[in-house]
Amino acid sequence: MTSTPSQPSHLDPKIAARLKRSADGLVPAIAQQYDTGEVLMLGWMDDEALHRTLTTGRCTYWSRSRGEYWVKGDTSGHFQHVKSVALDCDADTVLVKVDQIGAACHTGDRTCFDSDVLPLGQ
How far does Cα 121 stand from its chain's mean position? Predict the structure, then answer.
């Protein structure tokens, strides 16, 4: 079961009006290492999580499984310091360029995409 956020947001109304959210009010947020381009992880943000990310300089996500906001690094010590935030052309995905300190993946790997590379051409 997933929980959806219900807290009012402080996100700039001009940004909020542009966002195309899923049925549960979320947008996927891709975290990318700002200087190497390495794709680190995918998380989910609602308007308030995006607002907190933009204003604090630390990535805030909405945990669908726990039903609460979480700031990357608060429990693990593996912080994401925000360098830039952009919407894709459809405004349905957020790209957050970060300086990742430590592992980005909850498994302890540097990224969530380095341990299960699928074969091509088979």
Answer: 31
For residue range 46-97, list pLDDT tens digits in order. 999 999 999 999 999 999 988 999 999 898 899 999 999 999 999 999 999 9
Q: Is the distance from CB of 7 to CB of 68 less than 8 angstroms? A: no
- Residue 33: phi and psi, rounded to 5, are -65, 125
CA distance 40 to 110: 7
Q: What is the Rg, in whole angstroms, of the alpha carbon atoms belonging to the chain?
A: 15
Q: How many CB atoms sit inside 10 A of residue 42's CB?
A: 13
Please say whether the beta carbons of 44 and 107 come within 8 A: no
Q: Residue 93: how many CB atoms within 10 A of its CB?
A: 17
Q: Which two tokens stand for residue 38?
A: 């390495």
* Closest alpha carbon to 26 in 10, 48, 41, 58: 48
CA distance 80 to 16: 23
Alpha helices, H only, the chain: 13-18, 47-56
